[in-house]
Amino acid sequence: MPDCIFCSIVSGDIPANIVLRTPEVVAFTDLNPQAPTHILVIPTEHHENGAELAKDNPVQAAAVLAATHTVAAEAGLTDYRTVFNTGAEAGQSVFHAHAHVLGGRNLGWPPG
Ligand code: AMP
Question: Which domains does the chain have, with CATH numbers?
């Protein structure tokens, strides 16, 4: 998708600190971390949000979810939070589906 920053990370046109790459997903550290570990897991295909991804490509949606556990374990985390922000009011700022993996500190609930 032209002008999608995460598509540019998938293609390699924009650099990122990539921690996992498979044919289905790319995972990289968040530029503006909200916790000691903050990794984004994205599908290699462009879909606007997690719900669209699940509807259009359930195989990649499952791969994203599985990869959240992989990157958390590789970061040494047993306790972590996986977040999909869906829509601007929920805090979504990049409209390419992505899961946040947050950990390494106590995470309050409910989230802000
Ligand atoms: P969201 O607000 O849920 O859409 O999350 C988008 C996330 O992408 C934010 O946490 C940003 O800090 C992060 N982000 C934006 N651009 C980049 C980038 N080039 N590399 C890594 N993380 C990014």
Answer: 5-103 (3.30.428.10)
Question: Phi, psi at residue 9, to the nearest 5°?
Answer: -70, -40
**Count of alpha carbons within 13 Å of 11, Cβ hemisphere only?**
11
pLDDT in tens, 11-38: 999 999 999 999 999 999 999 999 999 9
Active site (annotated) includes residue 98:
yes
Beta sheet of 25-29, edge-to-edge order: 18-21, 25-29, 37-43, 99-103, 81-83
pLDDT-derived band at 112, boundaries 50, 70, 90: confident
- Going from the Cα of 89 to the center of ligand 1, the distance in angstroms, rounded, reads 16
pTM: 0.98
Distance CA(59)–CA(78), nearest Å, equals 25
Q: Does ligand 1 lie within 6 Å of residue 45's CB atom?
A: no
